[in-house]
Amino acid sequence: MNAEGILVPREQFDAITQKLADLQCMIEEICGKTTNKDGLPMRIDNVGLAAAMDKDGITSVHDKIMPDSADFMHESGEMRPFDLLESRDYHERIEDANMQAGHDYYEAHRVATEAEHSRMRQLGFDPNEVEAFQKPYIDAAAHEARAKGNTTPEIGNEPYRVSEETEMRADNDDSDNRYVLDIDGRKYDRPVMDKLLGTCEIVTGCNDNKWAAIDINSGKVLTTAESRRGAIRKVEAWAKNLGRRRLKARFESYDQMSQQQLRAKFEEPLRT
To answer: Is there a domain that residue 192 lies in?
Structure first.
């Protein structure tokens, strides 16, 4: 029966329904929009990263260079298609939920990656193979975004700031007023939280073009380097040499001094 209450043959009705579905797919392709299996919106755009969440909080946005699907070796021994778009969407929503719950980006990304890889294994695919396949596409997307600075403004600046990729943004908005203090009162901007061996919390930040890894619970500078990545590599190597048990004991031996206490010690006298 059509909208006017007139009976329509099933074959004709099915044909009309199929045409409407085809039209919807055409519109989504033109607009770069689609939905995941739960009906939540996804969009294809210039991202520079593999994917990210729109500022609306419900739309996952995927770089136009990233493939939607590909064939991989299945645990059955056969080559089977794997939905890469759905997998990235799954990752982004878990990551966003963890950040909304108060976790920093790196912790949220770690949890999302573990969940995504677990899902891949449950579906019978090797996460290492899938990640290796996508890496050249991620690199290509990043290269284009760095060259053009044309990523969509509908994604917030946070993913680009924490990954030090603000040049991908047309506005190059690197405004971040956050900072941390070390035990001697030195100020470090652009702070990013991390964990050593999954147990001891540190923060990396920049002071006078020098990057440091700092114990967030004492303010003790653990190492310095010319870049954030350099500081992280050095402090991670140090932690691995100590091992988890001795690393935890070392952190517990430091005099505890919160950021609030450090600010009261070094900044409050300046205000009075």
So the answer is: yes
For residue 201, tell me if it sits in a domain.
Answer: yes
The reply to whether 6 falls in a domain is: no
pLDDT at 188: 92
DSSP class per residue in 92-161? HHHHHHHHHTT--HHHHHHHHHHHHHHHHHHTT--HHHHHHHHHHHHHHHHHHHHHH----TTB-SHHHH
Length reported for the chain: 272
Do the domain assignments include residue 194? yes
d(CA 22, CA 17): 9
pLDDT in tens, 12-22: 656 666 665 55
pTM (two decimals): 0.55
- The boundaries of the domain holding residue 221 are 179-271
Same domain membership, residue 242 and residue 137: no
